[in-house]
Amino acid sequence: MTGLDTNIVVRYLAQDDPVQSRVATDIMELRLTPANPGFISVVAMVETVWVLDRAYGMTQQRIAAALEHLLQADTLVIESEQEVFAATVALKKGKGSFADALIGALGTRAGCARTLTFDKTALKLPGFELP
User: Fold this and answer.
1) pLDDT value at 95 more than 90
2) Which segments of 3-126 does DSSP mark as H helices, in order?
3) What is the residue range of 69's domain?
4) Are residues 21 and 45 in the same domain?
């Protein structure tokens, strides 16, 4: 397995740099295999969503589609895949930010009965409460 940093994932999805995007595409589409997959951590996933939103101005729907593409790849291992999927669904449905939804999903997996927050947007997500 080979770990992938955020910049590899972003260059692959954004295709915005002629040199680095070509290398990232080569890695994602040719070098990685089911026997030797790429690993994307939850930190890299959150950073990727943030960069696609803030730096590239992508819509939530387009970001969710990109995440779904990564989740479906048989050459990638996504850390906490079920929780990342749940956060992607929340993003797609406009229920809150990807990061907040992932925090909630990871908390639920860890056995948390609720997640306390001051973030009014996060309160739209299941399990979030004001303190």
Assistant:
1) no
2) 6-14, 18-26, 42-54, 60-72, 81-92, 98-110
3) 2-79
4) yes
